[in-house]
Amino acid sequence: MCKQQVTDNELVARFIKGEESALQSLIIRHERKIYTSIYLLVKDRELSDDIFQDTFIKVINTLRSGNYNEEGKFLSWVLRIAHNLVIDHFRSLKKMPLVHDTEEYSIFDTLPLMDDNIEDKIILEQIHKQIRVLIEELPYDQREVVIMRHFGNMSFKEISEVTGVSINTSLGRMRYALINLRKLIKEKDLYLNVS
Amino acid sequence: MNESCTLNDLVLYLHNETTIIQTVEVQNAIDNDEEVAEIFDDLKKITGYIQEISIRPAGALRESILNYARLTAGTK
């Protein structure tokens, strides 16, 4: 028998009632997606740490103030807070991020792999690193849509509301992002298959 | 690209956001047009790998957030 997982909404309700362990469960459940999203936007480990903490401070304060009414999409809501903090950061610098390469691979780790074959694991890790580096090469607006859709599970409609553009623009950005990634993969002759 | 299936349609289909009619049209294009099928296969692989990218925050960050929650409990 599978133990049914407590929903985000239940955990949120428990935390509001004062059960601190519920917050811990929410963080453990979503921290990788939230942190990965922030890092892919700002591309700096220390800044990601700061924004990650500030995001949860806002989450805690908002939940306690009774202003949370997201009806079930906790992760999307948290990612919107993180996204706004990223934008605030770039606004404070009075510039949007420039695209730059990074060689800092060591800080990354991929999801636990199920495959026992070591060679496959190495290939898969390489693919994840390559894809991550390619995402970093995308223009900011394309990266943003990719992150919101794939890490925040937001629909294109929701993304358009958060970013203040039309649904077609959001969709177009995703299309460009994926086509750009495909083009880069072909140009760099990357092989995406694991045996 | 196939006339009945644009890249936008393909992206929507990939993300399960097509209407029933669009779904049928896109699936039909994938089944009958090698170019569409190849693009779709590539995009599916790419998005699959994107979703597996995962960067873990330092454990100390979580502790710091939980400390904040403890320290501010009952003050709001």
Architecture overview:
- The complex is a heterodimer of chains A (195) and B (76).
- With 195 residues, chain A is an all-alpha fold.
- Chain A folds into two domains: 1-97, Rna Polymerase Sigma Factor, Chain: A (Orthogonal Bundle); 99-195, Arc Repressor Mutant, subunit A (Orthogonal Bundle), CATH 1.10.10.
- Chain A has eight helices and no strands.
- Chain A has helices at 8-16, 20-42, 45-65, 74-92, 118-137, 140-150, 156-163, 167-187.
- In chain A, helix 1 packs across helix 2 and helix 3 (45-65) packs across helix 4 (74-92).
- The longest helix of chain A is centred in the first third of the chain and has 23 residues, at 20-42.
- Chain A is globular, with a radius of gyration of 18 Å.
- The relative contact order of chain A is 0.11.
- The model of chain A is unreliable at 98-115 (pLDDT under 50).
- With 76 residues, chain B is mostly helical.
- Chain B has one domain (7-72).
- Chain B is 71% helix and 0% strand.
- Chain B has helices spanning 7-14, 20-32, 34-52, 59-72.
- In chain B, helix 2 (20-32) crosses helix 3 (34-52).
- Classes of the chains: A mainly alpha (195), B mainly alpha (76).
Number of domains of chain B: 1
What is the CATH fold-level name of the largest domain in chain A?
Rna Polymerase Sigma Factor, Chain: A
Structural class of chain A: mainly alpha
The helix count of chain B comes to: 4
Count of DSSP strands of chain B: 0
Residue-averaged pLDDT of chain B, rounded? 89
Radius of gyration of chain A: 18 Å
List strands and helices in order, with pairings.
The complex is a heterodimer of chains A (195) and B (76).
Chain A: H1 8-16, H2 20-42, H3 45-65, H4 74-92, H5 118-137, H6 140-150, H7 156-163, H8 167-187
Helix pairs in contact in A: 1-2, 2-3, 2-4, 3-4, 6-8, 7-8
Chain B: H1 7-14, H2 20-32, H3 34-52, H4 59-72
Question: Could you give a short description of this structure?
Answer:
With 195 residues, chain A is mostly helical.
